[in-house]
Structures are given as structure tokens and as C-alpha cells.
């Protein structure tokens, strides 16, 4: 398959399939993306065209998962953008430590290969080191979810090579939070033990996850339609405890999508806090 051999009808059918399955909206002219991501898989399964692929996908769940893994963009890094981690350490954790109703729960929605939830867990450990007794290690649970089984497998393994570690991790944190495993590095149990990883599509229901104090939903809404962004933000507001926080990616905003949150400015950035709703009776 090459970009030129994809017919408009095939392209349209594939776009619809992808958006229905994952929410990811493919632009009008992303034929090159489809070919570059799918050619290898299609060759392996002797699938000649997108039309053939669509037929096979109806009955083959494993193939469906492979296509989903291939079509997602899993770009991530340690302490990405630094702000979401500074605000956690200096504002949100001090606020949580005076609250009751433990355990506190943090959701890394669309966690890719694990850098986001592991960075959150490292921040928690650093916070606790500086303030013994303020919270105990088991007081905070993190759940990392993603639609891609491939990236989740890497996240669960918690083993990274030097190139992956070089993206945002200081040498000091590498020494403190990883142990050598051959030519690679494995995250230590103290950091790993707070996190549970689970495969989950953000289009599906969140009710089984329980309620969260903080949700990180970063660098994933950019792939979705305005309607799906609205729907996800609304359902995330329902998945937060009172006064809970939503943290979005640097280029993402609630503006125009949700009025469930107050914008809270802290230093050079913003976080979103669930509004307190007053119920009017009668
Ligand atoms: C660019 S990465 C962002 C990772 C991390 N949050 C960060 O900011 O570095 C986007 C992730 O969203 C996941 N994703 C895409 N569509 C999804 C969906 N419908 N449900 C859950 N995860 C999805 C992809 O598999 C990918 O790992």
C-alpha cells in the first residue's frame, strides 16, 4: 500500500473506524501517516489494501489492537513541561496532606510508556523525604491508563534504555529511583508500588475507577473532536472528588469545552479545579 493507492472511499472508511474506536480524528490529508504506520503490519498479515484491512478488522480483535497501537502517538518524556510536577509538589501535595479521606488518588489518563505516572510517583517520594510524617507512602495511589496495550506493557515493565532516560530525567533522579538491569535501567519498587496500570479507552465509562483528587489528562485531547473533548471533560469532572484538580497539556484548555472547573493560576501556569456546586432545593 502507498499513499497514492488509497482510494478516497477507503480513506474515509478508515477515518471513521479510527474515530469510532479511539476518538482520534485523522485530518483530510494524512494518507502518509496511515501508510507509514500500517504498511509493516499489513505486509505481515498479507493485507493488500485498506479495504481488505477494514474487512479483517471486523472479526479480528488482535489485529484491531495492533492497528490501534500503530495509530496512536505515544510521544512522552520524564517530568514533561516541568510545570505539572512543580505544581504537584509545591501546591497540590501540601493541600492534600491536610485533608482527610485517604487514600488520595491520582489518575494519569493516557499515560503512554509510564513516564508521566512514574514522574508523579517520584515527586511524591521527594515530597515525603522532605516532610516525614506529613503523609505516609501508602496514602497516595496512582492509576495509569492508556488505550494502547503495547505502551502499557512497557509502562508495567518499568525498564528503560539510556535514550529514554535521557529525555527529561536528571542523573540524580536516575541514581535515586532506578537500578541497573543489564544495559538498561529499572524503576525501583518504592516508585512502582503506588501505581496500577490498566488498559482503558477514554471513550469508555470511568465509573469503575472511583473518584480522584487529581487527574492528569495531558497531550491526548489534542487528537479528539470538540464533541469528544467536551464529553471527556464532563465525565472527568464527575470522576473528581470535591475541589479535585484537572491538569491538561500545555496546548490544551477547558475554554469552550467545559464550565465545570475554575481556572486556578499558580506561578506561570494554570490548573483547573472542580467548581463547588450549590444545590438549590424546591
Ligand atoms: C502523546 S501521548 C501523551 C502521554 C503523556 N500523557 C504525556 O503527556 O507525555 C498520548 C497517549 O494517548 C493515548 N491515547 C490515544 N487515544 C486514547 C484513548 N481513546 N483512550 C486512552 N488513551 C488514548 C495514546 O496511546 C498515547 O499513549
Task: Characterize the structure shown.
- The chain is an alpha/beta fold and 282 residues long.
- The chain has 2 domains: 3-71, Chemotaxis Receptor Methyltransferase Cher, domain 1; 83-274, Rossmann fold (3-Layer(aba) Sandwich), CATH 3.40.50.150.
- The protein is 42% helix and 20% strand.
- The chain has 11 helices and 10 strands.
- It has helices spanning 8-22, 31-44, 50-59, 61-71, 83-97, 115-130, 149-157, 162-165, 171-177, 189-192, 226-238, and strands at 104-109, 140-146, 159-160, 178-181, 184-187, 195-199, 212-217, 240-248, 261-266, 269-274.
- The strands form 2 sheets. A 7-stranded mixed beta sheet has the order 6-2-1-7-8-10-9. A 3-stranded antiparallel beta sheet has the order 3-5-4.
- Strand 9 (261-266) and strand 10 (269-274) form a beta hairpin.
- The longest helix has 16 residues, at 115-130.
- The mean pLDDT is 95.
- Bound molecules: S-adenosylmethionine.
- Residues 22-24, 72-76, 80, 110-112, 116, 146-148, 151, 201-203, 218-220, 223, 249 line the site of S-adenosylmethionine.
